[in-house]
Design a protein that fits this description.
By secondary structure, this protein is of the alpha+beta class. The protein is about 45% helix and about 25% strand. Helix 5 packs across helix 6 and helix 8 packs antiparallel against helix 9.
Length: about 280
């Protein structure tokens, strides 16, 4: 487990990363009441939130953005296993610091997450959704920074600002969008099904039957909600997973291509280069 705390203005940034050969449990609490937004990266760790006699479970966190209010009585528990590593970036500010935030950011919290600014319990869950491709790309970059020293911190600060901007922009659009909550939940389920079946994904017809939306609405509203068509999203996730396995030397290029569902190595390499700007054989 690695856990780094970084202070930027009146925000505290917590960067957590962990993997394990066996099941391990890690818990943490905040010293004072905070409003926070957690961004979960390519890991898929289990999360439990305990407060008083209440408990909330999150069994699928990969790509999740979760906003919340929590005080010192709330315990956050991550269960890490070989198949479910942890990658989490948390941006937090205390209630007393809201008025001090630069660029009127405190007013943004108040207007878009008023239920967190005026909490009714020890833990209050705010808006949550799966990240857009742009947000996911930023989170991935923060776990793979290649710079050092002051340049690394400069890059980190800029990406945290961009990540928050995307979060509030997406939150504002969700509040005004035409896609209603029940339909949005079905689309989030579609995304989950795709992520769990990267090697052998269902067809559009099969996917629409599983989530209870017709194919037309699935195609139209998936792109509206997540910013990319269904199978463009699937391709991006396949290539991101392959990049991670090759970079970490878990698989060869050929093995990674097969693992994420490509029968042709040339097709895989071409798609990989189009997304990342270099071929998989050039990963160091």
């Amino acid at each position: 487990m690695t856990r780094d705390f970084i202070n930027i203005n009146d925000f505290t940034i917590l960067v957590e990363e962990a993997s394990s050969d066996s099941v391990s449990v890690d818990s943490c609490r905040f010293d004072e009441p905070v409003i926070a937004v957690a961004f979960y990266g390519s890991g898929n760790v289990d999360l439990s939130v305990k407060y008083g006699n209440k408990q909330k479970e999150f069994q699928y966190t990969r790509g999740l953005t979760l906003s919340f209010y929590g005080d010192a009585d709330v315990e956050f528990i991550h269960t890490v296993s070989p198949e479910k590593p942890l990658q989490c970036i948390l941006i937090a500010t205390s209630l007393r610091s809201l008025d001090k935030l630069p660029n009127e950011e405190g007013e943004i919290f108040l207007s878009l997450m008023n239920e967190l600014v005026n909490p009714s319990d020890h833990y209050v869950e705010g808006p949550s959704f799966f990240m857009t491709p742009e947000m996911q790309s930023i989170v991935d970059s923060l776990f793979n920074i290649k710079y050092e020293g002051k340049t690394k911190m400069m890059f980190f600060r800029s990406q945290i600002t961009a990540l928050l901007s995307h979060f509030f922009g997406q939150l504002a659009s969700l509040k005004t969008e035409k896609i209603k909550l029940p339909e949005r939940e079905k689309l989030n389920l579609a995304k989950k099904i795709l992520l769990e079946n990267l090697e052998n994904p269902p067809s559009l017809t099969e996917l629409s039957k599983q989530i209870g939306l017709n194919t037309y609405k699935l195609k139209r509203d998936f792109k509206e909600l997540f910013g990319v068509p269904v199978f463009k999203y699937l391709q991006n996730e396949r290539l991101t997973l392959a990049h991670k396995m090759i970079r970490n030397q878990e698989m060869t290029v050929q093995e990674a291509a097969w693992h994420v569902g490509y029968d042709s190595l040339s097709s895989f390499s071409n798609a990989f280069e189009k997304k990342f700007g270099y071929r998989p054989s050039q990963i160091k």
